[in-house]
Amino acid sequence: MIVADRKPIEEIIGYLKDHKNILVLGCNECVTVCEAGGKKEVGVLASALRMHAKKEGNEVKIDEVTLERQCDREYLDEIRDSIDQYDAVVSLACGVGVQFTAEQYHSTPVYPGVNTCFMGATEKRGLWTERCQGCGQCILATTGSICPVARCAKRLFNGPCGGSTDGKCEINAEVDCAWQLIIDRLKALDRLDEYEKLCPLKDWSTDRAGGPRKVVREDVQQ
Amino acid sequence: MRLQYPPNIRIVRVPCSGKVDLIHILHAFEKGADGVCVLACLEGDCHFNNGNLMARRRVEQAQEILNSIGIGGERAQMYNLSASEGPRFAQYVTEFTEKIKDLGPNPVKLAKNKAA
Amino acid sequence: MTTKTPSKLEKILSEGHLAVTSECGPPRGSNSEHIIKKGELIKDHVDAINIADNQTSMTRLCSLAACIRLKLMGLEPVLQMVTRDRNRIALQSDILGAASFEINNILCLSGDHQSFGDCAQGQNVHDIDSIQLIQAVRHMRDEGKFLGGDDLDGKPQMFVGAAANPFADPFEIRVPRLAKKIAAGVEFIQTQCVYNLDKFEEWMKGVRDRGLHEKVYILAGLTPMKSVGMAKYMQKRVPGMDVPDEIIERLKGVEKGKQADEGIKICIESIQRLKECEGVAGFHIMAIEWEEKVPEIVEAAGLYPRPTVN
After folding, report:
1. Could you tell me the sign of the dihedral formed by the alpha carbons of A116, A122, A124, A125, in that order?
2. Partner residues linked to A6 by β-bridges
3. Topology adopted by domain C8-300
4. CB pairs under 8 A between A and C
5. Which CATH number fits the domain A2-118, given the four candidates 3.40.50.970, 3.40.50.2300, 3.90.180.10, 3.40.50.150?
6. Helix H or strand E encompassing A104
7. Percentage of chain A surpassing pLDDT 70?
8. What is the ipTM score, two decimals?
9. What pLDDT shows up at residue C229?
10. Does the beta-carbon distance from B26 to A44 stay under 8 Å?
11. How far apart are CA C181 and CA C132, in angstroms?
């Protein structure tokens, strides 16, 4: 899923200082799972914003809505009838949701309420870690299903570097060395001989480097 | 045991302090409460294992938010005691009420009253 | 062995001499006096001088410019190049630039992570890695082509090196990793500083068992300790560094004013022991901000005078 983290309330208050009718818009997907932008977090942020506004003596209306998704138009349409009541939206969806909401509602400012961090997994409640950077050409088949792009600080295709110590990365003793994991995994799969295969230069044109990307599937288009 | 404790508190009963969510604490302040204290079982004594520990974390979250919006995190507090400690209950509640009196009314309520 | 480039370092190694290289860190500013002075200090005692490329991610005068300075003094530079800061366009371009000044040695590295340096908030590039950089230089030199496939007008005549750290984890892939670099086309290796001689010799045995020492020249890296403090720092704080407790105890055993001399002594003894290690083709002496000690070490280790080659 896409993992996000809460923005400081002070920052959000700063964006909203000139607005009087505000919609706090949550998303029921990834950001709900990582407890950054679901219905609960919408309630908390809206409550905090209302209290702040009252304390400052500002007449501000703050409503709460949480959509099934903000990355699909059909769900965003659910606020079409009410959007004109608001002069600002704080979207607690990932960066995709913020932008897609803004594209749907051109004349309403949409502010981000979370920092979108990465594509990752839930290790346990309150701990999410990165697994994928969406480079567009998956090489996991050759690296024991552990991604050096997302998990090596130098995204080495022929690692590890000389900084790997006791299975940890040189940048931080809390970070696993991706190449240690790859080697352990190849060993477990009895495929360690594959370690010596040279990995060729990566084609980054399907990564961020190639500009905004799209997936076109004519076979499923309507 | 006829114990005295301040009459201006309102008790909200929950089956376990773990039931108290962050949003409950915030809504209480939004509606004008001057302080919220969560009274939970002693740590290590939760019938549901970790309800009181979760409550503590939520009180801490509430404190953080109250601080960041200028209401003051010290208005939310956590106390641990056992169900049989009536006198301690009275003592904690009295202490907390005194503390909140010193802090004065909830600024949200003040502003609301002024506006009305 | 025959040589493939005009590199003096390659000639010395191919004639079977034990090579001696050293290293200079470029200055943190545009003042090139330091580099000239450091070059002057060691030029008669070493065969080639590495110029680090923004080592530990601290921004410095660029390796290429410092290499050109040495070249203009008639010395033999080794251009260190990290893949951290340049994409494949910049890497190829700098290789060609260096080759145009007849810089004939390159050391291909991935580089320390930028979080160690003065631009911790900066982006890193890592378009390709150090092993792929070895392949890239060999491709340009041997095929006379850019990575993109076009013909080069003038091939970079570079003797291609890389680093190896026999002490990093996991130890079991340390020899396979060297084999991988050899498969990529590396011709010489400069190792991480060797303090744990037993472990180094164990690694070298693994290298010999696979015959890798016949496919690549291995220069053992050595850095004299200036003090107990430095030894402790290297042991605890420098990733991938193996400083055995004996080294620290030995330095502790002498009075403070004599610790530097003891460090030099350890360094010289290490060279003498490793000279006997089959497959060691030379020494890379990295006297960090202590270049003036290099001649003394080289002489005392019996590596002076340096051979002359045509």
Report:
1. positive
2. A114
3. TIM Barrel (3.20.20)
4. 95
5. 3.40.50.2300
6. helix A95-104
7. 100
8. 0.93
9. 95
10. yes
11. 9
